[in-house]
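User: Predict the structure for this protein chain, please.
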Amino acid sequence: MSALRAFSSLKGVAARQAPLRFQAARSYASQAKTLKERLAEIIPEKQAEVKEFKKAYGNKVLGEVTVDQAYGGMRGIKGLVWEGSVLDAEEGIRFRGLSIPECQKALPAAVAGGEPLPESLFWLLVTGEVPTDEQVKGLSAEWAARAAIPEFVEELIDRCPKTLHPMSQFSLAVNALQHESLFAKAYSEGIHKSQYWDPTFEDTMNLIAKLPNIAGRIYRNVYKDGKVASIEADKDYSYNFSKVLGFEGNSDFVELMRLYLTIHSDHEGGNVSAHTTHLVGSALSDPYLSFAAGLNGLAGPLHGLANQEVLRWTLKLKDSIGIDASEEQIKKYLWDTLNGGQVVPGYGHAVLRKTDPRYTAQREFALKHLPDDPLFGLVSKLYHIIPGVLTEHGKTKNPWPNVDAHSGVLLQYYGLTEQDYYTVLFGVSRALGVTAQLIADRALGMPLERPKSYSTAHLKKMFGAN
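Assistant: Here is the predicted structure, written as structure tokens:
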């Protein structure tokens, strides 16, 4: 399996032998290489690894496809390669083989905090290696140095009406950044395909670096006074993002952003935003166009928008039966919801069959930083009640909470109450995972994605149906 995850091995040590892998990865500390320098060393090794694996195992069957899967949104079909993360139905997401608790333990954090810095996770996603503190500090500085957005993009955002949804503005601004794409320029000038990864890397670095200024400007324009603070060159990504939002004075909120941006970054390749970014990128669209397409998918209520949908449902429950409602009252409310043909949002997942570890990470953050918050208390009650009701109801394969069941409560507590903006936060985070994969796609020479499709009439003919 290690060769299937071409970028996931840390010096060939098994994925779950985390302490040994951490030690091996940190051996690069003395070299103090930049991310691009280290990536340039890794790419030839991984290209050879994938080539050798495909030659030996290319005709092996990964799985079969049923008619139900074809009609059911390709659910569960094994047909993608995604290097940064793999989602296990029982244990949840692993970033390059590391679980969320392992990432929290191993990845460099801010001096005054404990949660991993998103910069450190991006390094891990791109290289498969745990970076050193020095390497992460260098990446923070590089992103800060690239953070300025063109004046015409600032004007474009400023001219948007406040009634235009924040995600529409976000996608619009990212598309506009394509004006500066180094990949598009290099491709038009005839760059050799073996070097596609280089301008893709540069576009990705520029894109990620500029997202806080874009997202912050949208937030300040739509909900505040339109004034956007400047990026600080010696601060980390999450601090600067919090600053442009206007929350840099609250160190706990900054720490929440570090956690939020890390755990929402990647969830393997089959979800809508990840797959869309990969699909559009397979046509050799540059990272700006590819990520903008992924953002449009993330904006859907069955994907990133679910974050705010859960919070709205929770607040409606609170308003209906009270924040101190008893277990009996909550159960009745749940059954009324289910018997009314509605779902309980935030519970269940297309792949997971246990509590989402991203939910658990946020719950532990809340227990540490806001244990007495009444809304968190209500969410905790729901955590202990809803799975039993859904199990008894019998129509939910996974009755346990997913990441969306918790994040809105944390944001509300710290004063970021504008629910329509929550998906923008998700988008800033998701950029880390999907663009890391774009770099891998170009490095490994992944082709245009073009699956075969059939009509219902043709399927009926294939199986002799009338």
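The chain has a mean pLDDT of 91.
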